[in-house]
Design brief:
Layout lengths: L5 H22 L6 H21 L6 H16 L12 H20 L2 H25 L6 H16 L6 H22 L2 H4 L2
Helix pairs in contact: 1-3, 1-6, 2-3, 2-4, 2-5, 4-5, 5-7, 6-7
Length: 193
Amino acid sequence: MLNPNFVVVGAFIFIFGSIGYFVETIQGKVKPNKVTWFIWALAPLITFFAEIKQGVGIQSLLPFMVGFIPFAVFLASFVNKKAYWKIGYLDLACGSLALTGLVLWQITKVGNIAIALSILSDLLAGLPTVIKSYREPETENYVLYLTNAIFAGITLLTIKVWSFEQFAFPLYIFLIALIIAILIKFKIGKLFK
């Protein structure tokens, strides 16, 4: 187990890895889906507040940063003419389910339920990006996702008490970010065409 302060090191790694994506969003080299990135900002921030309420501690820096960086990308996407609001059926379905999860959290007001529903919301909102990373990896940058997975991995290594509120969100972020990074970096979808 690592010292919990290593979470801060993970945060800096993630910030460093995010700068390129932020710049490429402004330049139009990557094409973030605004709906996904907005929900990717909102759901982790809800998790952050739920974790604080549950007494998680410094490990709650992960959901804060995982919400803050997508919010910055969401804002940058308005400068990028190639970023899109193009909403298809999958975007509508995932976005609706994600927002439903957030509304259910508001109704329940229970910290672990909030974390679980935020993870579900984040996952559902991210499905279009997972699919896009598989089909069109050239429209994404794997570094942001890889550094996010590293940040989550470091956070997991600092956990002393393996309770749901401590490990659920970091484990989810580690897995989803690693999957997306692999899909983009190795162009997995292009191998099966």
